[in-house]
Amino acid sequence: MSQKPPSPLYEHIGYWLRYVSNHVSHSFARKVEAHGVTVAEWVILRELLQLGDVSPSRMADHLGMTRGAITKLADRLMAKGFVVRAVNADDRRWQTLQITAAGRALVPDLAELADENDQHFFGALDPQDRTDLERILKILVRQHDLKTIPTE
Question: Which of 48, 54, 85, 110 has the most crowded CB, counting CB atoms within 10 A?
């Protein structure tokens, strides 16, 4: 019985996706950490700016994370002065997360870092190749029903 030799690592598209993704992600992480936040915290801040006041459970559902993970991230962002929790006067169990003025001021700077990071890594692609890459990745996201927003 002959056995086929294992395929070389470099023949796997997943290898190349992970290779590029790791470099893109680590570069961005270093940039945002220089501003005192992690990538996961940046994701929360960016989504709070877009969504407005939101309950931790809704944020968890929106990002595909656990409520516990959102609570930990919110606690860290509160300690940094970027987020506050507001308690409903009628039902003290109901809380919303709110971005502070300091958080609101930080988001554009972090978004600019994200844009620069994308340009650094993907600027070598001509516009059509970049559009094609994004289109193909979105096909894979839909095909596999991927929901969790990457935070690390």
Answer: 48
Return the closest-CA partner of residue 95 out of 75, 123, 118, 120. Answer: 75
pLDDT per position as a tens digit, 99-119:
999 999 999 999 999 999 999
Count of the separate structural domains present in the chain: 1
Cα end-to-end span (Å), the chain = 44
pLDDT of res. 107: 97
- Residues of the domain holding 23: 10-118
Give 100's contacts (C-beta < 8 A, 6+ positions apart): 81, 82, 83, 84
Model confidence at 60: pLDDT above 70 = yes
pLDDT above 90: residue 142: yes
CATH code for the domain in which residue 49 is found: 1.10.10.10
Angle between helices 39-51 and 67-79 (to 10 degrees): 90
Q: Residue 152 pLDDT > 80, yes or no?
A: no
* Helix, strand, coil abundance in the chain, percent, nearest 5: 65, 5, 30
**For 85, phi and psi rounded to 5 degrees?**
-105, 130
Is 136 among the domain residues?
no
